[in-house]
Amino acid sequence: MSADRRGLLIILSSPSGAGKTTLARRLMEWDESLSFSVSATTRAPRAGEEDGVHYHFTDEAGFKGMVSAGEMLEHALVFGNYYGSPSGPVRDAIEEGRDVLFDVDWQGAQQIANSSLQDHVLSIFVLPPSIAELRRRLISRGQDSDEIIAGRMKKSWDEISHWDGYDYVLVNDDLDTSFERLKTIVSAERLRLKQQPGLTDFVRGLQAEFNDEEQS
Ligand SMILES: Nc1nc2c(ncn2[C@@H]2O[C@H](COP(=O)(O)OP(=O)(O)O)[C@@H](O)[C@H]2O)c(=O)[nH]1
Ligand SMILES: Nc1ncnc2c1ncn2[C@@H]1O[C@H](COP(=O)(O)OP(=O)(O)O)[C@@H](O)[C@H]1O
C-alpha cells in the first residue's frame, strides 16, 4: 500500500522513573493511529503489565532465539535483562505510512538510528527535573523493591550521559506541559517535507491547474 505520509519511528528514552512510559501512554491515547512497539524482554512482569501488551515476556533462550533468527530491529542488555524490539511490526507500519512509538534505552535508540530505517527516526530524550525527584518517582511508582530502585538510580547517570545524541530533549517537570510539548514535536515532525512524499504529486496538480488558468 502506498502512503501519503512516511511513517515516523518515535523513540522515547530516559533514565528509569523520569516519565517516558507515562508520556508514551498519553501519546497513544492522543493518537490511536500510532502503534506501540511491544518489546520482548527477559525481565519479570510488574503488577498490571500484560504479556503482549506492555512487553512480550520471554526467557533467555526464547530471546536469544529471536535475535539469532534476525527478528530484532535492535536489542540490548539493560539492568541485567535483555530487551529488544521485534522488527516485523515496525517494517509493516513503515510500509503503510504509520508511526511507531518506542520506549527503548540509549543503546536501542542508537541501533535504530544506525539501521536502514534511520531516515524515519525522531528521537526524544526525557530528563527528570532533579535527581531527588527521579528517586521520588521511582519510589512512588511502588513497583520495584528497594534493591531494584537502588540499581536503577545507580544506572541513571549512564542513561542521562547520552542525552545529547537525541533530536529533542524534554525536561519532564510538569506532566501536562511535557505532554503538550511532546504533541507539538510529533505534530511538527509529521509536517516535514521529507515525511510527505505525496506533496510532489499535489504540487504537480497545482501546477496543472495554474497552467490551465493561464491559458484560459
Ligand atoms: N534497547 C532496548 N531497551 C528497551 C526496550 N524495551 C525497554 N527498554 C528500556 O529498558 C529500560 C528498562 O525498562 P523497564 O524495565 O520497563 O523499566 P522503566 O525504566 O521503568 O521503563 C528502559 O530504559 C527502557 O526504555 C527494547 O526493546 N530495547
Ligand atoms: N511530570 C511528572 N510529575 C510527577 N510524576 C510523574 C511525572 N511523570 C511521571 N510521573 C510518575 O513517575 C513515576 C515514573 O514514571 P514512568 O512513566 O513509569 O517512568 P519511566 O517509564 O521513565 O521509568 C510514575 O509513578 C509516574 O506516574
TrEMBL record:
Q: What is its EC number?
A: 2.7.4.8
Q: Where does ATP bind?
A: S14, P15, S16, G17, A18, G19, K20, T21
Which reaction is catalysed here? GMP + ATP = GDP + ADP
* Localization per record: Cytoplasm
Q: Does the keyword Ribonucleoprotein apply?
A: no
Q: Which Pfam families match?
A: Guanylate_kin
| All copies of domain Guanylate kinase-like, residue ranges | 7-187
CDD domains cross-referenced by the UniProt entry: GMPK (cd00071)
Arranged from A to Z, the UniProt key words for this protein are: ATP-binding, Cytoplasm, Kinase, Nucleotide-binding, Transferase
Q: Which InterPro entries match?
A: GK/Ca_channel_bsu, Guanylate_kin-like_dom, Guanylate_kinase, Guanylate_kinase_CS, P-loop_NTPase
A Gene Ontology molecular function term for this protein is: kinase activity
- Origin, by domain of life? Bacteria
Q: What does this protein do?
A: Essential for recycling GMP and indirectly, cGMP.
Q: What is this protein called?
A: Guanylate kinase
Organism field: Celeribacter arenosi
- Name the gene for this chain: gmk
